[in-house]
Protein: N-acyl-D-glucosamine 2-epimerase
Organism: Roseibaca calidilacus
Amino acid sequence: MPLGTDGTPQHGAAQELHVTTRMVHSYAMGQAWGAPDCAAIIDAGMRALWHWHRDADQGGYVWAVHGPQPQDSRKLAYGHVFVLLAASSAQEVGHEDAPRLFGDIAAVLERHFWDDAAGRLREEFARDWQPISRYRGMNANMHGVEAFLAAYEATGQDIWLDRAGRILDFFTGQMAGAHGQRIPEHYTESWQVDPDFRGDPVFRPPGTTPGHSLEFARLLLQHWDLTGRTDPTALPRARALTQTALSDAWLPEGGLAYTLTPGRMVDQAVRLWWPVAEGLGALAMLQKLDPTPQDAAWYARLHDFARAHFIDTRHGGWHPELGADGLPAANIFSGKPDIYHALQADLLALVPGVSRVFAGLRALAARGLDGQ
């Protein structure tokens, strides 16, 4: 369930699918790393996914629940790809229910969300699988890449790697190349850029989102690594995405702006935790592959800013949002976010490689560099 600012559970609040799934993924990483007491949380998350979020009558997974009761019955690509991520991560640590969950979500994605002609994901449906809109979005597809790479690592099935590559080609190749290494967020049903779209400020902010370019840069490098590093353009493209996002979004007072206008001006200057965490992840990958003084300087800048402003040294975790005064705020988010972004920022820097993170975490644990 959601947590308050001090880390205490917020009873009565709805549980959203992306939180349930990302906690399974995060604690599976912790278990692989040797951190104690992860198994019970993975178990609880897997039960919630199967018995609460899963629609046993019509298939798929509802967006929000309160206990076993649906609170928001929409079926969103964004949430469903995180179910695949959770199933893949649970499979990496040998959870007994992982194959069942993996098989179910793989079938749902194939039947309803994957558009093979486009090579991308359809966006959203009602509970009865009637389309809600003609909207198409980058965010769900980006996390689809993440989930597909995890599915490939967990199963060895090439279809997941191939589909991740098709999504990456469109967004980090075609779209970034046509827009100055910035990736538009919002599209029509025919995958034309929709520059006037203004949606949910959390999941569908207008304009472009530099933090997503940073995530895409990391995912591009992970895919490149898994495919044998055969594409000579992947590393330069990942670096261009990273450098453009950081230079566009870094604010004079420190921190990364949340969104830019299509004209590349700062739109929402609000400073959230996750773009900083994703910047650390992308830079950690670049420093492993092709280190430069500029990468090291940016990494130190983001790390120092996170320590000074986002990391809660009293209660643990990261504050999700800063106000104009640099202190924690609650204009978009309240309480503590799930640990997914912050934990990955830490662990991706520790593992020796850029892909197969679970293998890297197990290797660290075997060397005694674990989460104990």
